[in-house]
Q: What sequence folds into this?
């Protein structure tokens, strides 16, 4: 719920709700970055350094990033960051919407959808780096929808068989 929605619903948005929403969105951004970089999310210090480099000055500390991620301030209360802090935090993840990503549900949904699409494009680019995948895609492009479904099912079955074979110990393992 955005602050405007909360006002329309009969009262201001509670700081705890806002802090939780900010923390959840920051968690999603960190998880996306971890998935792109091999599984490790960025450290709070790394994020703060990246943001401060972008700003050309100190605008955020690692403790502030940590507190925003936890949804709490130093006293254990709901965090209440400035719009400027959230703006720089968004920019640190390449989000031009900045603070509105963290404060507006509709804007966050739009940005998340765009980030998901970019992720799929990245996966496609990686797959297209393999000549066999490119050749298979060219051949599959001429197939009917029914044949494409069969091809996809076969690919799923083959992947499952390969994963099972990789988990099954062989005779050299002595089992």
A:
């Amino acid at each position: 719920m955005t602050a405007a929605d909360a006002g329309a619903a009969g009262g201001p948005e509670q700081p705890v709700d806002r802090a939780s929403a900010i923390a959840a969105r920051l968690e999603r951004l960190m998880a996306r970055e971890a998935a792109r970089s091999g599984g490790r999310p960025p450290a709070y210090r790394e994020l703060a350094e990246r943001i401060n480099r972008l700003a050309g000055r100190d605008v955020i500390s690692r403790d502030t990033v940590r507190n925003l991620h936890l949804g709490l301030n130093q006293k254990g209360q709901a965090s209440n960051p400035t719009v400027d802090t959230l703006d720089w935090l968004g920019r640190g993840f390449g989000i031009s919407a900045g603070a509105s990503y963290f404060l507006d549900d509709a804007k966050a949904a739009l940005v998340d959808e765009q980030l998901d699409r970019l992720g799929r494009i990245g996966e496609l680019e990686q797959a297209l780096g393999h000549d066999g995948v490119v050749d298979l895609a060219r051949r599959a492009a001429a197939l009917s929808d029914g044949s494409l479904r069969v091809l996809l099912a076969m690919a799923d079955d083959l992947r499952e068989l390969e994963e099972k074979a990789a988990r099954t110990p062989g005779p050299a393992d002595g089992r």
Notes: Residues 105-128 form the longest helix (24 residues). DSSP finds nine helices and no strands in the chain.
